[in-house]
Amino acid sequence: IENLRRWKKNIVPVRDALSKILDLEGVKFDWRTEEFPEKAFEKTRQIGLIAQETEKVVPQVVDTNNDGYKSIAYSKLIPIIINAIKEFYAHFEQVAATVTDQEQQLTAISSSVNDSTDSQQDQKIEALEAENRELQAALCQLSPNSSICSSTNQ
Fold first, then answer.
1. Average pLDDT over residues 36-40
2. Which residues in 2-32 are b (16+ Cβ under 10 Å) and which e?
3. pLDDT tens track for 62-108
4. Which of 39, 35, 36, 80 is CA-nearest to residue 58?
5. Mind giving me the DSSP string for 97-126?
6. Which of 17, 27, 37, 106 supports an S-S bond with 84, CB 3.0-4.6 Å?
7. Dist CA 73 CA 134 (whole Å)
8. What is the predicted pLDDT for the residue at 153?
9. 91 contacts 17 by C-beta, under 8 angstroms
10. Torsion of CA 44, 45, 49, 50, to 10 degrees
11. What is the Cα–Cα distance from 70 to 60, expressed in whole angstroms?
12. Residue 30 DSSP symbol
């Protein structure tokens, strides 16, 4: 069957695809081959979904035959999976942008704190040096022959 747009109507994107995919539960299972030999089930371990549970989440992918048995058209899940990936990627991009913004803000804050701290330390050093010069000058007035006075006079 050709899958052409011109044969379709009421076309809308699948919304909330990610939440639908998250609501599905992939399972591993074995067929009950001994109880249903007429079904010719494979004897190897299988992987899939449970039709009754899937029907609650995405009824469009579950078919029911005349006997009431349900089956899943797995290929119909592909558009939902595609949109789920797109939704997840959009969310990922938002989170990545937020992280980048926060890293930049943190770098700016850190730089500001470092600059502020360096400036404050420089001011404290200058104040201590000035106080040291004043103390040295006072000491040299009291005791001009002190060794500290001779080193400053040179």
1. 92
2. eeeeeeeeeeeebeebbebbeebeeeeeeee
3. 999 999 999 999 999 999 999 999 999 999 999 999 999 999 988 88
4. 80
5. HHHHHHHHHHHHHHHHHHHHHHHHHHHHHH
6. 17
7. 91
8. 46
9. no
10. 80
11. 12
12. -
Q: What residues are paired with 47 via a beta bridge?
A: 28
Reading the block at residue 67, the tokens are 């006997």
d(CA 11, CA 5): 9
Q: In the chain, which ranges are continuous DSSP H helix?
A: 17-23, 51-57, 78-142, 147-153
Both tokens of 115, joined, read: 């600059």
Token code pair at residue 65: 């035959």
Neighbours of 52 (CB within 10 A): 9
Read off the pTM. 0.66
Q: In sequence order, what are the residues at sequence separation of 6 or more whose Cβ sits closer than 8 angstroms to the Cβ of residue 70? A: 51, 52, 55, 62, 63, 64
- Single-letter code of the amino acid located at 120: Q
The residues, any chain, with a CB within 8 Å of residue 71's CB and separated by 6 or more, are: 51, 62, 63, 65
Tell me 67's DSSP state.
T
Backbone dihedral angles phi then psi of residue 73, each to the nearest 5 degrees: -90, 90
Cα separation, 24 vs 78, in Å, equals 13
